[in-house]
Amino acid sequence: MKNAIEMHEEWKGKIEIKSKVDVTKLSNLSLAYTPGVADVCLKIKDDKSLSYTLTGRWNRVAIVTDGTAILGLGNIGPEAGMPVMEGKACLFKAFGDVDAYPLCINTTDTEEIIKFIKYIEPSFGGINLEDISAPRCFEIERRLKEELSIPVFHDDQHGTAIVVGGALLNALKVTGRKIEDINAVISGAGAAGTAIAKYLLVMGIKNVIMVDKFGIICEGDANLNSAHQELSKITNKNHIKGNLRDAFKGADLFVGVSVGKIVDEEMIKSMAKDPIVFSLANPVPEISYKDAIEAGAKVVGTGSSEWPNQINNVLVFPGIFRGALDARAKDINLDMMLKASYAIASSIDEKELRVDYILPYATDINAHKKVSNEVYKEALKQKQ
User: Could you write out the three-class secondary structure of 111-135?
Assistant: First the structure.
């Protein structure tokens, strides 16, 4: 069997541009290009909104990365990030029929990234920020959402939060819990962990304890950056101090978006009865599926397709952009994200729910359509 490097040498890139128009015919050439295209240009000059109906902008998303937080590999640079971005573009097309373009840029300066994306706005209907390290990613997304008139979505933050939310909804059903009654611990306070914590609190979770490499995040700690200071005000309401092992005690839910092999079976055993464990670090999870089950976890999800309950944000971004683009939304907001989580969860009939089947498979076309339909309807509702 060929390995990934051999296949990439054979593919020489995973995406390509194909013409919709047969320009070898003179009649088509004169319409698609000169002289006919001049009339189209002048139409758009007079009304820029026509760029959505007279060009492919309506279906075009830019995938922008600076290569600083690539897929569990860290800061490997924009060139090395390209294979991931090309793969993401494939997923956009396969599951949302969205034309996505990987743009790996050679700057890590926050202002330069914001400026670059503002410059390219006229070419795209949406922006997908990808694999930009925290805390810069928070400021970049915040500014762009304020300053652009097209949807901006940081998938590492919100895509991950949405799919975790969908997984949790069904995990609660199979464990007989209510979201307002559970306590959670999250390992990793970067882009994904921060977004998940805020999102789960909005969904109604009782309390979240955040843990980073320095230990439990607690209000008043001297070593907190600005993003963690904000987090400390809404999490850890009992002001618990200590390390990850301390945070596990009595928790109903663990979400790991940090590094591999930092959770052991004793930590799982210290949780509440029938705990829910989402161990999502890639390529090596915080605790393996098998070890978590053996330690007593009732529901376990990982980021891997090798085990049940793969928690993969590919269930989110194609559908959420499809819905937003079709509705000509100017933003992807919290209400749209919540609709996406509930759409993912409801893609499995409740009669089919099991501890090892809480999420549809990433290749489930119906699940992607359900996400896009619900996001589309919510976006239109907000326009009324």
Answer: HHHHHHHHHHHHHCCEEEECCCCCC
Strands, E assignment, 72-180: 99-104, 126-129, 152-154
Structural contact between residues 150 and 127, judged by C-beta atoms closer than 8 angstroms: yes
CA 277, CA 287: separation in Å to the nearest integer? 9
- 199 is a catalytic site residue: no
Domain with CATH 3.40.50.10380 in the chain: 4-150
Q: How many CB atoms lie within 10 A of CB 121?
A: 18
Q: What is the value of pTM for the model shown?
A: 0.95
Report how far apart, in Å, the C-alpha atoms of 157 and of each of 3, 179, 296 are.
Answer: 30, 21, 29
Cα→Cα distances 131→134, 139, 190, 342, Å = 9, 14, 11, 25
The pLDDT profile of the chain, 384 residues, written as one tens digit per residue, is: 579 999 999 999 999 999 999 999 999 999 999 999 999 999 999 999 999 999 999 999 999 999 999 987 899 999 999 999 999 999 999 999 999 999 999 999 999 999 999 999 999 999 999 999 998 999 999 999 999 999 999 999 999 999 999 999 999 999 999 999 999 999 999 999 999 999 999 999 999 999 999 999 999 988 888 889 999 999 999 999 999 999 999 999 999 999 999 999 999 999 999 999 999 998 899 999 999 999 999 999 999 999 999 999 999 999 999 999 999 999 999 999 999 999 999 999 999 999 999 999 999 999 999 999 999 999 999 988
Instruction: Specify whether 45 is catalytic.
Output: no
Q: Which among 18, 25, 33, 173 is annotated as catalytic?
A: 33
User: What is the CATH number that goes with domain 160-384?
Assistant: 3.40.50.720
Where along the chain do the CATH 3.40.50.720 domains lie?
160-384
CATH superfamily of 4-150: Malic enzyme, N-terminal domain (3.40.50.10380)
